Structures are given as structure tokens and as C-alpha cells.
Amino acid sequence: MTQAKTICPYCGVGCGVTATVDAGTLSAVEGDREHPANYGRLCVKGSALHETLGNQGRLTHPRVDGVEVSWDTALSTTAERLNTLRAEHGNHSVAAYLSGQLLTEDYYVANKLFKGFLGTPHLDTNSRLCMASAVAGYKRAFGADAVPCNYEDLEEAELVVLVGSNLAWNHPVLYQRIKVAKERNPLMRLVVIDPRVTDSCEIADLYLGIKPGTDAYLFNGLLAWMAQREKLDTRYLERHTEGFEDALAAAQQTAGSVAEVAAACDVDPERLETFYYWFASQLHVVTLYSQGVNQSASGTDKCNAIINCHLAGGKIGLPGAGPFSITGQPNAMGGREVGGLANQLAAHMDYHTPGALDLVSRFWATDSLTPSLPEGPGYKAVELFEAIERGEIKALWVMATNPAISLPDAARVRAALEKCPLVIVSECAAHTDLLPYADIVLPASGWSEKDGTVTNSERRISRQRGMLPPPGEARHDWWIICEVAKRLGYAEAFNYAHPWEIFDEHARLSAFENGVEGSPKRVFDISGLVGLGQEGYDTLAPIQWPVTVQAPHGTARLFEEGEFATANGRAKLLAIHPQGPEQSLSAAYPLRLNTGRIRDQWHTMTRTARSPRLMNHRAEPFMDVHPDDAHTAGVMDQGLAVLTAAKGEFRARVRVSNAQRRGEIFVPIHWTDCFTQQARSSALIDSITDPLSGQPESKHGAVALSPLATEWQATLLVAEGVTQSTPWCTSAYWARIPMRGCQRWQLANTQPVNDWLVQLKTWLPGDVSVVSQDPTNGRLRAACVENGQLRWWLMVGPPNELPGLAWLEARFSDERLSDTHRRRLLAGCDDGAADTGPVVCSCHQVGQTTIVNAIREGDTSVEALGARLACGTQCGSCIPELKSLIEEERPHARTKQSLATEVV
Fold it and tell me: Would strands 422-427 and 395-399 be described as parallel, antiparallel, or unpaired?
């Protein structure tokens, strides 16, 4: 048994993980108590990492045109086809689309190959979908993509402002750090600014439920208010900034009064002015913002409106202060460091950076090559697929991402992929929505196998360490890229034997002619990590860049002296003119759509869905709808409904919620064709982007809501391996939910079934062993047992009639059903077995019914519930739900005195 320290592969917090390997298997994970990002904390997704591994469902062999081939054939074919298309159509006809799931070393060699040696600028990344507006905002204000803050600032702040971020669900470890800080410092305040009442509001001192898309009005109003009340740091503005007069004039013109801003944002004026007063009166303020700000057609302006307020108040470059963009993926920042965006070269140099083309060309020794480095930026993500659709891009290499799901207007993206002459996919999962479009499939290593570095949201570089060998013939991405490069004729430039050699070159490039000849010094500088060698690389401790001779232990906070990366060293305030969403509402599409993540799932669920317990919190795709909108549309809580947009539709289960504003609907981004064909959120979003950042407007769709009129609903549980076909997927609605030992299917259709026993024979092998049917209401329960083993189980009826499925799930693992268990199959539970209800605490698998019973028995605090049931005692993500249940059930709770009386 051995232990290794590595990094969680999910969000941008970059939590340290201590993994235990036993007999070649990753048997357990826990938070690394020494890692400064999390100090031992893990969210429920991180805690379940070891449950998401295994060779099942992995790509293990290269394929060319659907046929398994050797690596030599796959690599040679890749190189030959790329060269053929370049010769026929030019270097700009090839492109790459990368991912924040790649390690920095993978990213570096991919960028070097495509931009440096293939001579194409068309290399972009899925970070374009989540972080591009924040990047553009930082560059405009500071002259560099440089996050000024660190996580300790969240704990040292007097005021933390969450904007467009459900931190409790999407970055739960940071949320817990803030929560603990508030408990230690009763004077610390938290403001949540979000159209939805989310779990992040649990510890909020003030909530502003603004109208979607009005963030820039809000912060323009704050800037104008600070000037009116003489709350500006005029000394800081004079010494360290420029552009203030124009920024203030624009703010006063568009948001000159509290009443005007309150009307535009649809918030209470008194609450708005309270926020303004708190922000202006405190020096130590951190504004933490994420996708709710970035994913907009004016996302860059929104970011700069936030930054303007921090610069105007001097709330930057000191402990507990600054505008802090929190990233969505574990290595979104690492990808930006090496040039993973289409408008970048490498090492935080852009095409327009003075001397950058010559500098990078000389460093990579491409100055004598034909082609040379491209002279201008390439296509950003949405533009890239539009160029494929036009036939301009002939070859696309996609690595570790799923654009057939994640990009807006997904049908158009799929049509483009269908007509692209060459699609190469490097992937670790055997079943994704992208693979049917791939001509060449290259099996890549995954987390627990990959070895390299990532950079989290606070600029902290950490080692991700490989602990297990890749399955079958899977290989590391950096190796695959380099082997193709060698076959393209660039062996000398890609002759790396280990990731540390790539990292060393990356570090040397960051320092190469950095700040010479009067040009601004690039903030990204890790020259202090040059020459580590393999031993130093393997033992590298987490460290924040810049890392230089002057700062050998890293840099916790940027711009402390008020010196920025601009030509004159001054930060720039921008004149912001707020704009509403480009996807406008209409009579046909009257409801505003918001998209986002949920607590227990990650992106397109290729990893998290492998852990059955992570599927229990929100098992099916859903839509959150305000009660008034539900009534108007004629939809019911837990019923099925359809969202229709100009580009497509979305079918899911309704959750009626007062947390939604009227006229607005929330849907999750995670479900794909692997889990349901009717709930791809990207089908509802138009391909409108921010003109500066290229980031899609994914938060502001326009939709109509209507009920899905079904003749029947059913729940089907099928043992693993019973059938390879799924004829029931022709139903009007289906959702697949992985469980231990079986697959659960939620089904519904608009057409009646005349005889369910006949229908079952067309769907499933084996005879019905037990059945219960009520023709008067269409209810039916049936099961098939073969050789003493449960093969499938069906209930026709709405899901709210289901028993707790834990007992049934366990029966699929029985080698032979007992007579008692066989008699209880139709009931779906054992005699006296408690139905625990929907899972609330995923860490300890504690259900809602169990929690409600405990509350009614007198456990009316989170601490009491934790002591009895363990819920809320691990990652803490379920605590807001626990509090909600306590409030709902408190009137029904029995006091300790009444319990004592009952005992007597």
C-alpha cells in the first residue's frame, strides 16, 4: 500500500488530494491537509474520485476509420492526413480544440506544434466558454491576465461579494473557507448577487436578486455612488491609474442614481444602497465572480465594471482585497499560461505584444522554418466551428473535451463536425457524443494516470502525479502530440522523454527576454523553476507564480506596489456602457433561460456518473420554474415539461421553486446523449458571443415552457449486461441513471401501451416472473428472475410512487435471491425497511425522509443532525438543504420535554 499526493481534476479550486494505492488499485482518497488550497477539505465530487476509476468504459486502442490499429499506424495516418490537407488547402486549414482538463505540459506541446510548426493560429480551448471574458477584462485593466488575489484574501476580507457564482455548489471548498472565516470574524459580511436564490445564500448577510444581465448597471451605479459620497481613493487613482474620468462619466450617464439602478436591476433600493455603503466603507473587499458574469455578450464589460470599482476605491494589492475571477476547470489558468487561447502565442504573450512573434520564433527555433509563426490570432471557439461549417477548416484535432455538447447551438456544431474531412479525437472515455464524428480516435490517459502540473484560480502551480498505469494501449497526451510531431518532421523540437523536460522549457520561455529593451515586464514569470530536473519536478510543492530569483517561494498577491503590466505601469479604468442580453425575449419565447452546474456532477458526467452515489442528489435532468410561471404554462412540480427555443428543445422534470425569479428558468448543463437525448442545454442557446472575448452568451437564452402530455411514465431497472439494445429510447422522454449493479431508466411517452406484458417482450429478454397489474389506473409492477438472479424490474406509474430504490439496487448484486426477497420484489422493499427518501447528503448517503424523521424527533439543528446521521459533517455541501428542511419541519418537531413525556 502506497500513498501519493496529487490534485483533484474537477473545478478551479485545485484541491490537494492524498490517494491510497493498494494492489494496483486506487482504493481511497482524502484531502491533502498540507495543500494550501484546501487544507484537507474535499467536496463530495473529490471525495468520490476513487469511485470513478476502472477500465470499464475506457478507450484502450487507437482507431482509424472505425478499425482498431497499432499506435504506429494511427500516428503515421494522423501525420499523413494532416500533411495532405495542409498541402492542398494551406496551413490555416488545420485546427485544434483543447481543454482545461489537459495538463500544462500537454497544452504546451500542443500549442507549440500547431502555432509554432504547423503555422496555424487556429488553436483554442474550452476555457473560452467559461473564462475568456475574465481574461479580457484583466488584460484591459492590468495589461496582463493576472489574477491579483489568493484564497487567503477570502478569509482576511471584511466584505466578500459573490457575483454570478453559486460558490456553495460549484466551488464548495472555497465556500467552506469563507463560512469558517465568518464564524471566526462576526464582523465579516457576505453579499450574494445572483438572479437565483442559491445555497450560497445560506450565510449571506445581504442578497440582491438582480435581473439577469444587469451586472454592469449595478457596478456602474456603485462607481457613481462612491464618487457622489466621496468614497473614492483619489490618491490611488492619481498615482496608479488612468481613465477614471471617462469611466465615471459613463457610470453617471447610465447609472447615476440608486433609484435608476434599482429599477434597471429590479432590486429593492434600500438593499442596493446598503450594498453600496458596505462596499465603499470597507477597504478589504474581495469581489468573487464567475460564469454568471462571464457568459454574456457583454461579459468583458461586466468584468471591467467590477474592476473599476476596486481600482477607484484602492481595494486591490493588499490582504483581503481585489477583483477575483474564479475559474471553472482545474487547469484553465495553466492553458492560458502556455498560449492555449486562439488570441495568444505562449507565456502570456499575445500576437500584438511588441516583439512577441520574433521572440517566440527564436526561442522555438522556427524562424528558419516554412511555415513561420502565424502573424495574427486564430478563430475563437464558436468562430472555429463556423469556419468548419463553411469548409474553411479541413482538419480538427480535439483533445479532452466534448464540443458536440458544450458549445452553443449544438445541432450546428454537429453538422459542422459531420462535414469536416478529418476529425481527430484524443479521449479517455469510450462513449462520448463527439466520438461518432471522429475519423481517428487516440486513446489518452486519464486522471490518476497523467503526470504533470496544473495551475489553479489563485495562480498556484501544483503537481498532478500519475499513480496507476494507463489501461490497455492508452497513452499520455503530451506523448501522442510529440509522436505525431516527429512523424511530421519536427523530431528535434519534440524530443521529450519526460514531462519535466516540457515544464522546464515552459519555464525558460516565461523568462526569455522578459522585460528587456524597455518593454513591460511580463507578469507571468516562473524562471525560478528552471532547472529543477526530474527529482525537483517530482517533489515540487504547490507554489504561486511569479516565481523568480527575487521571489523564490512564489508570490501570494500581485500589484502590491501599484505597478501594473501596462506600458506606463498604470491600471486602466474603462468606460462601461451596459447592454442587455443579445438573445432577446419575445411573444414566442417569453422566458429567460439560465444554465449552470449542479452540486454533485461535473461537466458532461463522463467521470462523475461512474459513481452511483453522485447520481442520487439530482438523478434526472430538471428545470427550476417559479410557481407563477408553472401555473401559467400548466406544468406541475415533478411533472415533465418541454422548453422550446429557436434552436431546439429541452425535456426534463419540473422543480417548482420560489428561488427562481418570475419569468426565468434554470437548467443544468450536464446531461448528454449518453444519459438522455432530450436534455442538452446547449440546444437552447444561440451562438452569440462577446465581441471582445469570444465567450458565448450561455446564461441568457430565450425559451417557451409547455407541459409534456404523457400517457404513461415508468421506472425500469436493468441488470448490467442483460441487453445491449435499448428500444425504449424511442419514448418521448428517457433518462439513464447508473446505479450499482444495474441501470435505472426513467421513461415516459405520449402514446399509450395497450398491453404491457406484450411490450415487455419486445423490450427485454426473459419471461416475467412476478407481476401485479391494475387495469383501472394503468399501474403495473413486474420483474424477471433467471437462475435466482434479478434481471430487471419495472414499475409503470409516476416516480413519486416509487419505493426507496436502495433495497432493489442491492438485489441486483445478490447471487441468488432468497424466497423472502423474491416475495418482496413487487413491493420494492423489505418488510419493515425504511424508505430513506431522495439523497440529501451524498457523502454519507443520507436521505430526506431519514433527515425529516430525525428533525421531528427533536434534532432541530445541523449539529444535532450531524451527530445522529453524519450528514453535513464531511464536505458541508448539503448544509443549506439541511437548514431548509429544519425550517420546514420545525413546526412538526417534538421537543426534548415532549419526548421525555412520551418515554414516561
Answer: parallel
